[in-house]
Design goal:
The protein is mainly alpha-helical. It has one domain. Helices cover about 60% and strands about 0% of the residues. The chain has 3 helices and no strands. The chain has helices spanning about 10-15, 25-35, 40-50. The protein starts with 8 loop residues before the first helix and ends with a helix. The model has no long low-confidence stretch (mean pLDDT about 95).
Amino acid sequence: MLSASDAASLAIVLKLLSSDLYLSQQEQLDKLKSAIEMFDFESALSILEKLD
């Protein structure tokens, strides 16, 4: 979705942020969310690639 510059990817990130499974990734997911909200999909892809 990010490579297609699809802002609907924000809904997925919000679900991940609300999950306890991703607490260790909270900071990176917040950065990913911010990039998507600013329609900076190139940065969002870069952030996503760095997630464990």
